[in-house]
Design goal:
481 residues; alpha/beta; TIM Barrel; Glutamate mutase, C-terminal domain; 2 domains; 8-stranded parallel beta sheet; two-stranded antiparallel sheet; 17 helices; binds ligand FWK; cobalamin; cobalt; EC 5.4.99.1
Length: 481
């Protein structure tokens, strides 16, 4: 079927659903009507959309960790251990499930059971199936979201939404380009239309499921306009399929003014594009991801990175902050380390929440720059798609118009090269084939030249490499030693 940004009709969806639920043995337990009834039975306190709406009304920044382990009882214990220290809960899905390798996930469950500890890097929800996923939801007092990185997340959605998870992360671009190597973009976009249509069917039955495109993308020096374009496109695609509760995200870059400008411009741009596309009755929120790049091994320094992200999230007015842990440099955190990341974040949020970050010409300039960049790129996306943003996205990625730095996907041009300027803001070192106006490119070039002058070296790819490692080496800007 040719990809188009058009709401899937019932027949198309249902004929595809037969194949989806048959793709693993646990799919047969999913009954949509029963899932709707169960979702309706949940208290508002366990519904992501309600908790997000209240936070936005009150101007609060909610705390959410990532967390997932192989076995259901351990996963429940982990989330119960974390839930008093956060506002929203995850279930981070393991890498095998993300690749639809359910046989390997089954082996991982067996090995974990034998070893008495998790040997998977997340929760294999598809293998555990509806009843066990529901047992997770029943064992908790806070709303639970599925967090993963799955280009084909259809069966995962069927099972977890029927089980009572009330939020679903990802999208056809954001869970392909940064996560997969050879998955055709057209295919993942189409698979995510299915996921969004399923959320739309729940919505039509009065069950509001939150949809959160994966904001940070490669998590490595991604310029705000790049991740904003992807977030807005995935928001538009989700709205088209009937989703109403959208959270758009952005990964901390490190320069405070730029990060605050990023979150504020994201909300304004999303409203601009959603309303221009004719959508008005949606619920929009934002999520700020604490630094997604390399972390210091030193745990005290890791806490500093975590708290810098918490401060930026609160000052930016993000609805939610995704919290890192002091074990980030080593791998899957212990539950204690995960909780410490949350507690450090709480302390910073509590100290910052009553403070207002003042508007300034610099902040205003950053907001306007991001808006101009997003509008230029999205105009090209719509032009390439002859008005269809799904088709336009496929063509724009192929043309290098949409280009995510340091992403593994072979369909991604990878020509855009970012680098920090002399105050640590992420700028463009090489625009590749991204169509930005000359004055914007000059602005970036001048900012990078300021740094080159200060460091008495030419702007180069070495600067980029230095920036990639800088924060893990306890700096923001990768200055020469
Ligand atoms: C998006 C990638 C990030 O998700 C986090 N992550 C992935 N799997 C888990 C996990 N199983 N538990 C806690 N955090 C996790 C980790 O911080 C990683 O950098």
């Amino acid at each position: 079927m040719q990809l188009r940004n058009k709401k899937l009709d019932m027949d198309t969806f249902l004929s595809e659903r037969t194949e989806v639920v048959a793709s693993w043995v646990t799919g047969k337990d999913v009954d949509f009507e029963e899932g709707v009834r169960y979702q309706h039975s949940l208290p508002e306190s366990k519904r992501f959309s309600s908790v997000l709406a209240a936070a936005d009304r009150e101007g609060r920044t909610l705390r959410q960790p990532r967390a997932g382990v192989a076995l259901v009882d351990e996963h429940i214990k982990l989330l119960q251990f974390l839930e008093d220290a956060c506002d929203l809960l995850p279930s981070t899905i393991d890498a095998y499930t993300r690749l639809n390798h359910y046989e390997k996930a089954a082996e991982g469950i067996a090995r974990s059971t034998a070893a008495g500890t998790s040997l998977l890097n997340g929760f294999p929800a598809v293998n555990h199936g509806l009843k066990e996923c529901r047992r997770v939801v029943e064992s908790l007092t806070k709303p639970v979201q599925v967090r993963h990185g799955t280009p084909d997340a259809r069966l995962l959605a069927e099972i977890t939404l029927a089980a009572g998870f009330t939020a679903y992360e990802g999208g056809g671009i954001s869970y392909n380009i940064p996560y997969a190597k050879k998955v055709p973009l057209e295919r993942s976009l189409r698979h995510w239309q299915y996921c969004d249509r399923l959320v739309g069917f729940y919505e039509e039955r009065g069950v509001r499921i939150n949809r959160e495109p994966f904001g940070p993308l490669s998590g490595t020096l991604v310029p705000p306009f790049v991740s904003h374009c992807v977030a807005i496109i995935e928001g538009l695609l989700a709205l088209e399929q009937g989703c109403k509760c959208i959270t758009l995200g952005y990964g901390q870059a490190g320069n405070l003014v730029q990060d605050i400008a990023a979150i504020r411009s994201l909300r304004e741009l999303a409203n601009e594009y959603f309303q221009a596309a004719g959508f008005t009755d949606y619920q929009l929120s934002t999520v700020f991801h604490q630094w997604m790049g390399g972390f210091p091994e030193n745990e005290a320094m890791a806490f500093s990175v975590i708290c810098s992200g918490a401060a930026a999230a609160a000052l930016a007015g993000a609805t939610k902050v995704i919290v890192k842990t002091p074990h980030e440099a080593s791998g899957v955190p212990t539950k204690e380390a995960n909780k410490q990341g949350l507690e450090a974040t709480t302390q910073t949020l509590n100290m910052v929440r009553e403070q207002i970050f003042p508007m300034s010409p610099t902040l205003d300039q950053e907001i306007e720059l991001i808006k101009r960049e997003v509008r230029c790129v999205l105009a090209k996306v719509f032009e390439l798609g002859e008005g269809d943003v799904a088709i336009g996205t496929v063509r724009a990625v192929a043309a290098g118009v949409l280009d995510v730095p340091f992403a593994p996907a072979t369909c991604n041009a990878g020509k855009l090269l970012p680098v920090r300027d002399n105050v640590g803001a992420v700028r463009i070192f090489d625009a590749g084939r991204v169509p930005l106006p000359d004055d914007v490119l000059t602005f970036h070039r001048d900012r990078v030249a300021e740094r080159a002058k200060a460091e008495k070296r030419e702007a180069s790819s070495q600067m980029v490499v230095d920036d990639i490692y800088a924060i893990s080496k306890s700096r923001l800007i990768g200055r020469p030693r």
